[in-house]
Structure formats: C-alpha cells, structure tokens
Amino acid sequence: MNKGIFITFEGIDGCGKSTQLNLLKEEFDRRGMEYIVVREPGGTVVGEKIRTILLDKNNDSMTRMAELLLFEAARAQITEEVILPALSRGVNVICDRFYDSTSAYQGYANKMGRDLTDFLNLKATNDTSPDITFLLDIDPQTAFKRRSGRDGGEDRIELQGLSYQEKVREGYLELARTEERIAVIDADQPADAIFEQIRNRIWDLTD
Ligand SMILES: Nc1ncnc2c1ncn2[C@@H]1O[C@H](COP(=O)(O)OP(=O)(O)OP(=O)(O)O)[C@@H](O)[C@H]1O
Ligand SMILES: [Mg+2]
User: Fold this and answer.
1) Which tens digits make up the pLDDT trace of 42-66?
2) For burial by CB atoms within 10 Å, which of 18, 28, 75, 103 has the most?
3) How many CB atoms lie within 10 A of CB 29?
C-alpha cells in the first residue's frame, strides 16, 4: 500500500492556514481521497491539555525553554499516536502547523537557536518530514487586520505583537531558503487564487 501524503500549513497567525486547509479538505472530499486533519499543538488527549497550557494568557511566567519542550512534547505524542499510523495506512495527513513553527517561533524569533530546535524537532518526530509544506507568507499588519475580524481575542502567543510576528516571518523565510519541501505562497491574494497554487503543487506530487 502507498503511504499517505503528509501536508503541512505554516505561517504567522492569521495568514490563512485554516482557510486553505478547509479548501483542501473540500477538494479531497470531492475526489474521494482519505485524509485526516490534525492541529498542532493538540490533536491528542495529552496534546490538547498541553495546548491549553501553552495558549493560556495567565501563564505569563512560562520560560522559553519550558515553552519549547511543551511544544515538542505535544508533537511527539501526535506523531506517534496519530500521524505515523495514518500515513502507514495510506491515509493522507493534513496538519495545521508542524515542526517548522518551532523553528520559526522558538528557534528564530525567541532566539533559542536552530541547532537546538532542529535537534528536538528530529527527536520528537522520529525524523518524520512532511512531503510538502505550504508557507503562507504575508506581512504581519495585513494578517493582524484579518484576525481582528475574528472572535475570541488574542491568545498568549498572539499577544506578543507585530514586531514579534515580523521576526517569525523572517524565520520562516530563512527556513524556506534551505528546505526544498517548503513552497512559499504569497498569501496576500484572494483565498481561491492561493488555493489554486496549493492544489497544483499537491497534484504534481501525486501524479
Ligand atoms: N486570502 C484571504 N484574503 C482575505 N481574508 C482572508 C484570506 N484567507 C483568510 N482570510 C481571513 O483572515 C482571517 C484569518 O484566516 P485564518 O483563520 O484562515 O488564518 P490562520 O492562519 O488559520 O490563523 P491562526 O494562526 O490564528 O489560526 C479569517 O477571518 C479569514 O476568513
Ligand atoms: Mg488557524
């Protein structure tokens, strides 16, 4: 049996990951393709508990190392419990954020260093690399305006402001320069124009 395709969506908060992921789900449904959708951090009982800790605004004394290790703990759980079994059953996996988020947020923006985050990413996932990653690239101001139209307010990480998001964006773009699996997509376009590019890249992979 063929392995499933492992697809991840990355980018700063509000860049349009969930929007594109939903369009991809509809496309997979139309084509009768089997898939699961997971989100990071979370996606397992243990992981959702870790997510609550990570996003809780009251946890303002969380150290950067604690934050990094919590992300990796949730990732280790979802990789072993959900992602790897699905891929080996031939089921496609669509993931809303994966380890590139750690490289960009903790490694680059939080200055923990890419050596450390690369090492932990590898260990937490047993070297499970996405087949393709869509980096939805957008300037933080535009993403912020999009997000402000949404309910629920900002979470602990979103509260860190525009200059932080700018560093995260730089971190992602630096990563994309060396990682061939990362497709950088200009996310300041209508959602259907973005999706058209995503769909073409995925069918290139499956043909
Ligand atoms: N291409 C687009 N053009 C204009 N608005 C968009 C576009 N894509 C998404 N939006 C809107 O921008 C907001 C943020 O989009 P979305 O929730 O998909 O981003 P996200 O990357 O998943 O955010 P988060 O990181 O916070 O989960 C939503 O209100 C969505 O409807
Ligand atoms: Mg989202």
Assistant:
1) 999 999 999 999 999 999 999 999 9
2) 75
3) 10
